[in-house]
Specification:
Layout: E1 6-12, H1 18-28, E2 31-37, E3 45-50, H2 64-95, E4 100-108, H3 119-139, E5 144-151, H4 157-160
Length: about 170
């Protein structure tokens, strides 16, 4: 993913083909806000994808401030996003039988297998897992798919962009 940050990218015609692929490419290149617009049933599918985390090497007895900052980034921010997104996703799901809505949250295996050098991240990912599972138990029955996207290892940015678009 690009370290350079750009603004908003609006995709008019965001179907499952070119529109999605172009939006993905612009997101990888550093656009922080992607707004998909479409004219058909695709508009009934909305996904709120939460991928915020701080990865800081440290030890088991690192500063409380580091843990607090990581907790705010990974859990408090997710909680605020959930407060905003869930009523909207629930309303969308109730609007049509064709409507599909999801809140997806990236996580890792650190909640089950903590790494002492990533103690703070391990701690907040365990809390995040608990939050997402609680949200799922509460809201999945109302038509919102709430789930973790579990990453089982280090992410290599050079492998994320397997295709080049021009």
């Amino acid at each position: 993913m690009s370290t350079r940050q750009y603004g908003t990218f609006v995709v008019i015609g965001s179907g499952s083909g070119i529109g999605n692929h172009v939006a993905y490419t612009f997101a990888v290149k550093g656009f922080s806000h992607i707004i998909p617009l479409a004219r058909n049933d695709w508009t009934y599918n909305r996904v709120c994808f939460f991928n915020a985390a701080r990865i800081v090497l440290g030890g088991l007895l690192e500063s409380v401030e580091t843990i607090e900052e990581n907790f705010e980034t990974t859990n408090i921010a997710l909680y605020i996003v959930a407060q905003w997104a869930i009523p909207r996703l629930r309303a969308l799901s109730a609007s049509s039988a064709a409507a599909k809505s999801s809140l997806l949250v990236t996580n890792s295996l650190l909640y089950a297998n903590p790494i002492p050098q990533l103690f703070s991240l391990s701690l907040v990912k365990a809390a995040q897992c608990s939050l997402v599972m609680s949200l799922a138990k509460t809201f999945n029955s109302s038509g919102i798919h709430i789930a973790l996207v579990t990453v089982g290892g280090a992410v290599a940015p050079e492998k994320l962009e397997s295709k080049k678009y021009c």
